[in-house]
Amino acid sequence: MSTHRVAQVAEADGRFEIVERELPEPGPRQVRIAVEACGVCHSDSMFVSAAVPGIRFPLVPGHEIAGRVDGTGPGADDIWQVGDRVAVGWFGGSCGHCTPCRQGDFIMCQNLKVPGWAYDGGFAEHVIAPVDALARIPDALSAADAAPLACAGITVFNGLRRSPARPGDLVAVLGIGGLGHLGVRYAAAMGFETVSVARGADKADFAKRLGAHHYVDSTADTPVADALRSLGGARVVLATAANSDAITATLDGLGHRGELVVVGAPAEPMRISPGQLIMSGRVVRGHASGTAQDIEDTMAFSALHAIRPMIEPVPLDQADAAYRRMMSGAARFRMVLTMA
Q: Are the C-beta atoms of 107 and 8 separated by less than 8 Å?
């Protein structure tokens, strides 16, 4: 019997342990991926802590997966071949029959298959994934760089390109962590006049190195909204920070008909009054990831503009330490598990 190693938690909020499992076989329209790298995302904590329904233990999380196809099930080998380089993100497959799917809005699938929730994720040497979840990795990207782009990268890339902002518009990115550092780079590469908003004056130089044209210290005496208005008002604010008060503080910095795109997911509600929206025609929009094609678009754009995530690669054996470092906020900026 062939086996492979996985990093699993046996109970809610448990510690990760490395165990041997039987090597799974792909079913119809599925492939088996030999995982080369898997990013550690804060959203993994929802599954590790059983904060969403349907969690089953022992649990293998991980939805920023990059590797190579090493087995195909019936109906998969007409598209994918052994050796193909692929990535799988938050979009781990769709049902194809719910109303959003029938309308072609697959990321809004009411039965979305998120790796680490619907099936074992990428904290493992192998993972089984449906063919509609696979994105082809360009040759220019390593597996360790491609993995975070399948969730962190696509989330901010899609959030920006689906916003009303156009080249030359003022766009602010709130937060400069795992999502925010990529958001600043994408915003600048898309031709936006880019504002980085973060805590502390010490981050200003780093934000400028990422490509920001302006930096706003959210801890300074000048409120964030006033600082944005002094620059003419933002067409879009991309909120990556997981802090509802920080997100709310940017709203009045939007210009008329500006849009607040929320991709950070704090548990606390945002305190927004109807008047803040109505009088200036502002919009608040939630945004979640994207499909496999969107991941391919993100990776292609990243390769074209030499954009790479800032990562801390560690071996699978150190999954527990990597997860704890991510949860502490110390990661700079994405922990990535790599397989031997």
A: no
Predicted structure pTM score:
0.97
**Strand positions, DSSP E, the chain:** 3-9, 16-22, 30-40, 65-72, 85-88, 126-130, 135-136, 170-174, 193-198, 214-217, 234-239, 254-262, 283-286, 311-315, 334-338
Give the residues across from 197 on adjacent strands.
Answer: 174, 216
Tens digits of per-residue pLDDT, 25-74?
999 999 999 999 999 999 999 999 999 999 999 999 999 999 999 999 99
Residue 42, CB-side half-sphere exposure with 13 Å CA sphere: 18
Contact 118, 93 (CB under 8 A): yes
Considering only CA atoms, which of 43, 63, 13, 40 is closest in space to residue 240? 43
| Helix, strand, coil share (%) of the chain residues, nearest 5 | 30, 25, 45
Q: How far from the centroid of its chain's Cα atoms is residue 318's Cα?
A: 21
Contact 251, 271 (CB under 8 A): no
